[in-house]
Amino acid sequence: MAQKGTIHSFFTPDPKKQRTTTTNQDETPTYSTHNTYPFPIRDLSPSITKELASLPARPGKPINDQPELDLVYFEPFIPSYLAKDLFRFLRSELPFYRVEYTVKRFGVETQIRTPRYTTVFGLDHTSLFDDDDPNIILDAKTRTWINTAEAYPRYSPRPIPQCLDALRKSTEAAAGCRFNFCLVNYYASGSDSISFHSDDERFLGPEPAIASFSLGAARDFLMKHKPAPPPPDGQTGPVFKQLKLPLASGDMILMKDKTQANWLHSIPKRAGKSTRYAGGRINITFRRAMVKGGTDNYYNYNVGNGPVFRWDDTAQEMKEWKPPSKDNPGPTVNTNLKPEQKEPDKTG
Ligand SMILES: O=C(O)CCC(=O)C(=O)O
Ligand SMILES: [Fe+2]
């Protein structure tokens, strides 16, 4: 999937740094490409890829001192010099979306604008991308070609690009579980947030494991138990304490076993003047969707049908990204704009 490109190396050397992730300036960057990507997505350099494979930086600590709570907290998983570079790399290189959707509340259709940028890559357990041509999708059991337009009529699945797949592999080894989806949130400031929810959709199967990374600005991660049914007469029910984990760049929380079924989590807004929470934050979650409905759900709520946004380093903010045109030729790298279904070679 990697392809040679023409722009310069992303990382520039900083002589003050003791440890640096800078690679040889002569190293030609490579790109992950796919019919569904709005633009090629740059790969991590071989040296950073190798560093990711050697993580976690510290062993995880269990947090399981409350009923049905099962967390492993890696503080950090990615050391800070590497987390800083990875944050800047992913913010620049990934396509993002600001998804809008409608929900029915008290019988009234309400328009929701997701209060953060999102993006997603992956494919559920029933299907696979063909190793030789990831634009082709195979049935996971029979390894035969499936018609993507029929199997996934609303959104064409996108393979996890190399820059996130390297972290997925390292996370799988540390967590001892498999992931087929990678969701990324970008919180542009303390005004972006995610409200209390649990990732307990049926398409994840029972007791799903979810690995959740923080890069960039610090934010509080709150957890509270779901409302418990009232205890039988005369008995006292368990008392649950709310948790507040001040997540720093490079930290990872693995949520597992009964956690999603019983606990809610959120990243509340931090819109005050405090500089503690200032600046952008990236969250990456790795998950495992078991059925096709999971693929459709993830693309619907994290990609949608709106415009693509890309980080603008001059403006220091996300800007709507437009495909290159005659008037605006765009970058020199080859873009792959039209999502189209390719039929495999019948003889092959
Ligand atoms: O940003 C975070 O740390 C949490 C994100 C999250 O809960 C989600 O995407 O489901
Ligand atoms: Fe979540």
From TrEMBL:
UniProt GO MF annotations: broad specificity oxidative DNA demethylase activity; cytosine C-5 DNA demethylase activity; ferrous iron binding
Q: Where is the Fe2OG dioxygenase domain?
A: 178-290
Residues of the signal peptide: none
GO BP of this protein: DNA alkylation repair
Q: Where does 2-oxoglutarate bind?
A: N185, Y187, H197, H265, R281, T285, R287
What SUPFAM superfamilies does this protein's entry cite?
Clavaminate synthase-like
**Which parts of the sequence are annotated with region: Disordered?**
1-36, 314-348
UniProt feature, compositional bias: Polar residues: 20-36
Record keywords, A-Z? Dioxygenase, Oxidoreductase
Residues engaged in binding substrate: D200
**Which PROSITE patterns does the entry mention?**
FE2OG_OXY
Alphabetical list of Gene3D superfamilies matching this protein: Alpha-ketoglutarate-dependent dioxygenase AlkB-like (2.60.120.590)
What are the Basic and acidic residues biased-composition ranges?
314-325, 339-348
Q: Which PANTHER family match?
A: ALPHA-KETOGLUTARATE-DEPENDENT DIOXYGENASE ALKB HOMOLOG 2, DNA OXIDATIVE DEMETHYLASE ALKBH2
Q: What is this protein called?
A: Alpha-ketoglutarate-dependent dioxygenase
